[in-house]
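Thanks for the sequence, V.! I ran ABC transporter ATP-binding protein right away. Repeating your input here for the record:
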Amino acid sequence: MSVIIPFIRKYKVAAAASLAMMLMELAVELSQPLLISKIIDEGIRQRDAGTVWMWGGVLLASAAVAFAAGILSSFFAAHTSQGFAFDLRDKLYSRIQRFSYETFSRFATSSLITRLTGDVGQLQDTLFMSLRFMTRIPLVVIGSVVMALVVHAGLGVWLALTVPLLLGFLYLSMRMAAHRFKAVQERLDSVNGVIQENLTGIALIRAFVRTGHEIARFGEASLGLMRSSVRALKLTETSAPILMLMMNGAVILVLWFGRVQIEVGSATLGETVAVVNYCLRTIGALSALSGIVVTYSKARASVQRIREVMEAEEGSGENRADLSGLSAASLTSAEDIRVESEAGQGAVVFEHVSFCYPGSDIPILSDISFRVRPGERVAVMGATGSGKSSLVALIPRLYEPSAGRVLVNGEDVRSMDESRLRGMIGYAPQEALLFSGTIRENIAWGKPDASPEEIGRAAEAAQIAETIRSLPEGYETRLGQRGVNLSGGQKQRLGIARALVRRPAILILDDSTSALDAVTEGRLLKALESLSCTTFLITQKISSTRSCDRILLLEDGRLEAEGTHDDLMKQSALYRTIWESQAPAPAAGEEARHAQGTD
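Predicted structure:
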């Protein structure tokens, strides 16, 4: 609970008010059986109507006070729990945003969604119930036992002996239920994961006629969730009848011995009724407690899952300190201030860089060294799995090298403020991720304060402006989720425009022209020549590399060759093989022979 309590402190006044109103409500309710006892013994049995009216009026007034106090207690409890949930969800989301890639990869996306929604909601409900019921129930039980002993010690002792047995039983049930409800939450993660995969890949599922298979897979995950839930609920639902059986036994004992005490004159009818009333209040409280045990057991599992996120390692470096005090609501504006291109810069140096993905010993990159001057265009080529994307991911420090160092403008990226580093980089992945909103908003996502002119220039350079103008609403055209109403090439060009709008010092195109035809790609590369930025172009197309100042050819994580197109045609058999596989047969044979003849 140490992770949760700081979020409650902000609402301590409202929480205290809720508890104060609850205590007033409770005090009044505990006095009511005693008032009923006086009405019976001093009024009804003595045939004194005045006493009945007097104590009856007091009883009615106390009921009104308890009602008003209960309403106010619920209001303050709701304010506290809603504010707590907002702050916790906000902080949790901000922390996830600061995760390093290594930390982020430890959590499934569906699990993080469940923690941000289901687990936070569970704690919100638990806090509300704590202020209204969890605190009240123990006080009702303790108060009822004390008042029963005050009214008549001989009868109240049966209630006092029964309650500890019930509490011990509830404690054991709660501990067992917590483990089972944690399993339920994990099963819910699995169901959410299947749903997310299916909805994201619905087109692929239909194309491969795998709808039946995916329905069966969802059914299997859903069945596992149902079985876990039933297993947990069996325990909690079984506890309620056992509680009722034990408490009804206590009531029977009070009635039995009450009759005996009345006959011998050591107890009155009013005292017996009052003690039975306190027993019934205890029954009601403990019956509600069995349901609260379920809530608290779920909350314990949710606290553990939220603690895992809150205590997970963040991204390293100055970025952590700079953003630690920001909420999700203010995070975007704070980062926008840091998005700044450092014109005229963009030198990148790799010095004996090696890299393995976190938790793996398999080398992805091995002893990579090269230097790129500001403004150079560098193509990165290689077979699938050769380490191209991993190499460029080290530049914005999405990952950190296992050995060696990466320098940008002469600074080791590990010593640079991450916001400043990434603010000078424009990144366009192969699979362009677009957000729900307008085309203008998606392009401006790269620079929120971009003017319409800047957005237009970026779209022109990315060769998407003409397409946008052809749409009925132009830049105000709304995109579906993940840009489903656009083609693959259109999404890629919007992604490139988003990277270009910030006028970066370093531009990374991670195979982001793969869906473009040769003519469009040629115009795009021509437009990029007017930009004074260092460009890393990951590509499999020889036609794209010929306009580059330099080509880095990777093979199995090593830098196999480096140079211009003509250099590699002379020096690298692998590069010639790639060229021959893409060029028309006569041209390929002629240039290959020419290259070999000039070696």
